[in-house]
Amino acid sequence: MPAEPVVQSLTANVTAYLQLPGGWFLNNAGWITGPDRTLLVDTCATEARSRRLLKAAGPTGNPISAVLTHAHGDHAHGAGLVAAAGGSVMASAAAAAEITTGPHTHPGVFECSTWGDIAPPEHIDTITAPTHIDLGGPSAEILPVPTRAHTDGDLVVWLPREGILFTGDLVFADVTPLALHGSITGWLETLDWLAGFEATTLVPGHGPLDPHGRSLPAVRAYLQWLLDAVDGTDHPDFDALETRARALWSDWHEPERHAANLRVAHAETHRYPPDVAVAAQAMLQSAGGPIPLAL
Ligand SMILES: [Zn+2]
């Protein structure tokens, strides 16, 4: 079983919520607390995990709103609980469209019996431009990512006064990034954009806090390697490349993701639409079958 969530105060008003080691569906979240309102950044994968997060974020009795960095279920499945408690939920338009047609649990890929009530909210406020959220003292900037990256519809939450950036899954720390649903080239561009914030603390989507920004060059090197590994060859030896990736990033969790990522990289470098189902199947083969989730 995964370790207990880590609740880590970053400042008097900003808290990171880390579910380590950060593999499948063990995402990070956090919150910014104002005198009479709390803004949650992301929720969790299961009802029980999201309720626990909401309880940790809400001891002051403040009403809680949530901003979702993207549509993936580990970050978004608790949004219905936020709405049921009277809070608003915000996400990019693309993420909102995907979330409200969910929940998406991918039963052919994952085995999980503990989702609980993860019904999506009926309504999500869409973020289409940089949005300032005033919490009556502390404030936050919600910034849509300019291009497709980890998904089609990522956003980040930036706290300029504190130098804290909630990156969502644009940054994975010590966990293999998942590039199945976005654009690797767009993600690389987005890493440059993220570096421009000069944040002093990154809260990655998965894995431990990154106080020195070391994850940015690490994710960059990996994504660039994916593209370089398959560029110039029509029929790459995916198995050999996966073995190479597992050796190069041997300390990263969830190495079966290399199999999917390499196929997406091949599609991008050869300019054809990636077949997500084929890439997911390659990942399952690498994992030895459907992936059991102990959530
Ligand atoms: Zn994600």
Your description of this structure?
This protein is α/β, with parallel strands linked by helices and 295 residues long. It has one domain (6-212): Ribonuclease Z/Hydroxyacylglutathione hydrolase-like (Metallo-beta-lactamase, Chain A). Helix content is 32%, strand content 21%. The protein is built from nine helices and 14 strands. Strands 1-2-3-4-5-6-8 form a seven-stranded mixed sheet. A five-stranded mixed sheet has the order 9-10-11-12-13, covered by helices on one side. Strands 7-14 form a two-stranded parallel ribbon. The mean pLDDT is 96. Bound molecules: zinc ion.
Task: Give a short synopsis of this structure.
32% of the residues lie in helices and 21% in strands. It is of the alpha/beta class.
Q: How many whole angstroms does the radius of gyration measure?
A: 18 Å
Helix content: 25-40%
> In which order are the strands of the major sheet placed?
1-2-3-4-5-6-8
Shape estimate: globular
Order of helices and strands: EEEEHEHHEHEEEEEEHEHHHHE
pLDDT below 50 for ≥5 consecutive residues: which ranges?
A: none
Q: Bound small molecules, which ones?
A: zinc ion
CATH topology: Metallo-beta-lactamase, Chain A
**What count of helical segments does DSSP give?**
9
CATH architecture: 4-Layer Sandwich
